[in-house]
Design a protein that fits this description.
Elements (H helix, E strand, L loop, with lengths): L23 H9 L5 H14 L10 E3 L16 H24 L5 E6 L4 E9 L4 E15 L1 H8 L10 E14 L6 E11 L11 E11 L5 H16 L5 H12 L1 E2 L4 E2 L4 E7 L4 H13 L1 H12 L6 H20 L2 H8 L4 H4 L20 H10 L6
Antiparallel strand pairs: 1-2, 2-3, 3-4, 4-5, 5-6, 6-7, 7-10, 8-9
Helix pairs in contact: 3-7, 3-8, 4-10, 5-8
């Protein structure tokens, strides 16, 4: 939730143990003796596997009681892009969580710190059933190791022409979804990530490369134009500091990405989204991702402060729940981050933290034309230019 915490709001990177590929002899042995008595086959396979190199296996996370200063290896340079990106996302997590807790007025985040045996880890924070927030999750992860080719294809979002084989990788990101209780207060998703594949050109796996991805998007149940314009203005301002083509390009990318094909509508009212971005200077893109992450609070919290106490009816709440259903549909069917996390055995609580506590589906529901609900649906079907 795209989500590394990662690929997208819903995502949680995983780590695979960096062990060699399976022995081809083992595969041949298994095929040749398939018809043997099961006990004999088990004994021989066990003996063969004890002699063969171990294949890449998924390592489950280990709960930790304290946050480390860094999830990187001790040998990592503090001036590397990896180290500076980790510093940025951890600072952004602190800043956003402080703002969200302050807006709630009493809710507290539950924090889980976890690590991977092979290296890396993450911090998951969730505020649930607060005064303002139904569910607010802000996760960071910094993981590295080896992933199978199908996970690499999920991370890239398209077929690749690299040789089959395990892919050494590094992935770091911050991922968040904020679901308010009040139906007049919009949901927000943001996610910023940095990804590397480490394999040299002549090794099985992906060629060495890096890319940035991410975005921030707004999903209201009701449209307040001043709120949507404010939100998009902040996104445009962050983009314009680096390239005037970024906002129109990434705004369209956002509209296209968060498209629910089976409904022929967008999840919400957009924002910015980009992925696989590596055709600019690496330092520039690091600064751009930092600026975008720093823009989350000023783009969103003023809207929450304005709408969190607005009176509403049961009908308003029911419409919000129907739109939350669309949110669930997109995240479970189309979101690249969710796909990546599920394919690689990631931390399931982090992967699904983007889902709301409650949602609703009604058979063949159609809002009355001209109603406020209809206006929202129309804007999701026909994206608008807000600034």
């Amino acid at each position: 939730m795209p989500p590394p915490a990662a690929l997208s709001a819903s995502s949680s990177f995983t780590l695979l143990s960096p062990s060699p590929s399976p022995s081809p002899k083992l595969a041949s042995f298994h095929s040749k003796h398939h018809s043997f008595h099961s006990a004999t086959r088990f004994t021989r396979l066990r003996r063969a596997r004890s002699l063969a190199p171990r294949c890449a296996v998924i390592e489950k996370e280990t709960p930790e009681t304290e946050k480390p200063d860094t999830f990187l290896r001790e040998s990592s340079s503090p001036t590397s892009v990896r180290a500076r990106f980790e510093k940025m996302i951890r600072e952004a997590q602190d800043t956003v969580c402080e703002a969200i807790a302050a807006a709630d007025g009493g809710g507290k985040f539950k924090e889980d710190v976890w690590s991977r045996p092979g290296g890396g880890g993450g911090i998951s924070r969730v505020l649930q059933n607060g005064a303002v927030w139904e569910k607010a999750g802000v996760n960071v992860s910094v993981v590295y190791g080896v992933m199978p080719p199908e996970a690499y294809r999920a991370a890239k979002g398209a077929p690749t022409d690299h040789k089959p084989g395990p892919v050494p990788f590094f992935a770091a990101g911050i991922s968040s979804v904020l679901h308010p209780k009040n139906p007049f207060a919009p949901t927000l998703h943001f996610n910023y990530r940095y990804f590397e594949t480490d394999a040299p050109q002549d090794a099985p796996g992906a060629p060495r490369q890096w890319w940035f991805g991410g975005g921030t998007d707004l999903t209201p149940a009701y449209i307040f134009e001043e709120d949507v314009k404010h939100f998009h203005s902040v996104q445009k301002s962050a983009c314009d500091k680096f390239d005037p083509t970024f906002y129109p390009r990434f705004k369209k990318w956002c509209d296209d990405y968060f498209y629910i094909k089976h409904r022929d509508e967008r999840r919400g009212l957009g924002g910015i989204f980009f992925d696989d971005l590596n055709d600019y200077d690496q330092e520039m893109l690091l600064s751009f991702a930092t600026e975008c992450a720093n823009s989350v609070v000023p783009a969103y919290v003023p809207i929450i402060e304005k709408r969190k106490d607005t009176p509403f009816t049961e009908d308003h709440k029911a419409w919000q729940q129907l739109r939350r259903g669309r949110y669930v549909e997109f995240n479970l069917v189309y979101d690249r981050g969710t796909t990546f996390g599920l394919k690689t055995g990631g931390r399931i609580e982090s992967i699904l933290v983007s889902l709301p506590l409650t949602a609703r589906w009604e058979y063949d529901h159609k809002p009355e034309e001209g109603s406020e609900e209809w206006k929202l649906l129309d804007a999701c079907i026909n994206p608008k230019e807000w600034v």
